């Protein structure tokens, strides 16, 4: 049972010196660098005998724990992770970033990596954390790709999710992967964001070939790929058991699962997100009554800078903390 505290959503307004969705995306991610917390790293063996790395922000035993699932090619050092845990630490809360396979500067052992609909990975990670911390409040937040996977898990689990975590939040999740894939493969997005994603993804894929042979991979086509559609067609879909890139994008999207969520969930998306077209965002009729939609006009893709130049990254951590605090269990 949760506390009956009302949750007031703080309004977000982008600073006048940072206009437009691209600037609001790029500046926080590249120029508002913040020193990473003193993470404690663990290596976990997965149920299929693969491996991931997990970074912890420790604190006093018994305090609330926030689990963060990062975005595409993100990590515990992404700006949203460092700003969130820097703030939560001052509140006496703890945190953990379970890296998706091949992330965290560690190549995993199996041919598979990670994908946007990997709710099975979300499940075993959260269940393991709950088993390790059976008596503390646990909250989960997914960012971008991690947000889609978390929301998909919530919809699949329904009432069962409450046995694992107390509440959840998703930030700038691409809930319609086809819409996001198409957006990222066009114009400025393709020249800037997709080019950077592919640089990292391609490097990892070729590095893994030195460890695990993949006779089905067309290496020449991969070197020439310039879109996410091409990468997902050549790598993500076949490696993870999807029939095609279209099958992957459709079946991995969390949007059809939003009406099945029965755990308190905060879903934040901006209307000027370069990655997520505004027309693809869910309306209140698309989600269950347990889902709170927050869709500010500005903020970019996981940007949310505020204040006078050079700006601060406080709005998102404060909003997430306030939401999670409103769902702390009643003392026994």
UniProtKB/TrEMBL annotation:
Keyword check for Hydrolase: yes
Keywords (A to Z) from UniProt: Hydrolase
Keyword Lipid biosynthesis in record: no
GO molecular function, one term: hydrolase activity
Pfam families named among the record's database cross-references: Abhydrolase_1 (PF00561)
Signal peptide range: none
InterPro entries: AB_hydrolase_1, AB_hydrolase_4_sf, AB_hydrolase_fold, ABHD4
Limits of the AB hydrolase-1 domain: 64-306
Superkingdom of the source species: Bacteria
Family of this protein: Belongs to the AB hydrolase superfamily. AB hydrolase 4 family.
PANTHER family linked to this entry: ABHYDROLASE DOMAIN-CONTAINING PROTEIN, ESTERASE YHET-RELATED
Protein name listed in UniProt: Alpha/beta fold hydrolase
Naturally occurring in which organism (per UniProt): Iodobacter violaceini
């Amino acid at each position: 049972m949760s506390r009956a505290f009302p949750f007031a959503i703080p309004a977000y307004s982008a600073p006048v010196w940072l206009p437009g969705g691209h600037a609001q995306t790029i500046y926080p991610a590249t120029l508002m660098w913040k020193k990473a917390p003193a993470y404690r790293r663990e290596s976990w063996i997965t149920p299929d005998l693969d491996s991931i790395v997990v970074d912890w922000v420790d604190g006093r035993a018994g305090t609330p724990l926030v689990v963060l699932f990062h975005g595409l090619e993100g990590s515990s050092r992404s700006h949203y992770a460092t700003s969130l845990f820097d703030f939560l630490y001052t509140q006496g809360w703890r945190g953990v970033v379970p890296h998706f396979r091949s992330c965290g500067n560690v190549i995993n052992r199996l041919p598979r990596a990670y994908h946007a609909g990997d709710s099975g990975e979300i499940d075993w990670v959260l269940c393991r954390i709950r088993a390790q911390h059976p008596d503390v409040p646990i909250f989960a937040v997914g960012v971008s790709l991690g947000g889609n996977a978390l929301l998909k898990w919530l919809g699949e689990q329904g009432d069962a999710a409450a046995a694992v975590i107390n509440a959840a939040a998703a930030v700038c999740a691409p809930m319609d992967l086809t819409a996001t894939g198409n957006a990222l493969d066009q114009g400025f997005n393709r020249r800037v964001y997709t080019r950077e994603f592919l640089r990292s993804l391609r490097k990892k894929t070729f590095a893994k070939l030195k460890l695990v042979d993949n006779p089905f991979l067309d290496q020449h086509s991969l070197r020439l790929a310039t879109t996410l559609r091409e990468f997902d067609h050549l790598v993500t879909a076949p490696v993870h058991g999807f029939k095609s890139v279209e099958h992957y994008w459709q079946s991995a999207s969390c949007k059809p699962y939003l009406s099945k969520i029965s755990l308190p969930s905060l879903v934040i998306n901006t209307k000027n997100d370069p990655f997520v077209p505004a027309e693809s965002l869910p309306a209140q009729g698309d989600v269950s009554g347990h889902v709170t939609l927050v869709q500010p006009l500005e903020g970019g893709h996981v940007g949310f800078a505020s204040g006078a130049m050079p700006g601060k990254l406080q709005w998102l951590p404060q909003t997430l903390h306030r939401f999670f605090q409103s769902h702390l269990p009643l003392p026994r």
